[in-house]
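Hello forum,

I keep getting stuck at the same step: I have a sequence, I want structure tokens, and every attempt I make locally crashes halfway through. Rather than fight my setup again tonight, could one of you with a working pipeline run this one for me? It's a single chain of 195 residues.
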Amino acid sequence: MTAEPAPFDHEDTNTDDRPSRFKKSISGGFSVTEKVAQYDAWANKYDEDMRSYGYTGPEIAVEYMKRYFKDTNGKYLDCGAGTGPLGVHNVKSTITFFSRILDTYDGLLCCGCFVPSHLEPDCVEDWCRIVKPGGIVFIVMNQRWLSQEPAYNEGKLDGAFQKRVDEGKWELVVREQRDKYLTENVAEVFVFKVK
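Reply #2:
Ran it on my machine without issues. Output:
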């Protein structure tokens, strides 16, 4: 049994409003339009802020992309691409990401999107549909949300993943933890192969 992760109480020593921007982005009660407006307002400082919090999700994701996305001519979806830090970290690779809608993809990456008030667990049903058989779906997320976020805790997110395994839609290839994902939080990494 793993220890319960510490709450995220990061406070910057800077005088600007970075902590409130981060905390606001993961708070509930906002419509999709309001959430988009929050991120639009934060976009020019987002990458800088996340680096100051010790966020290493894109670096972790690139390691897994190089390991599992073998077809460099494939079509890969960056789910929740945001400001595109994966593209920046991935410049030495020949993998191309699409943030526009195509009918099918050779793989899908979801990095840092399973956070409060963002993705619902059942979104993975669509991922099984749009990723071609044999394609890879991998998820990099803050492990704490598996126990602390009501939309994901008590097995809700794990259950959504397992349901697709049980239905024969994908298989779990790897589940690993990585230290120092966001300050001292641990990353939970899932790699699935679509059937």
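The radius of gyration is 16 Å. If your local run keeps crashing, start a new thread with the error log.
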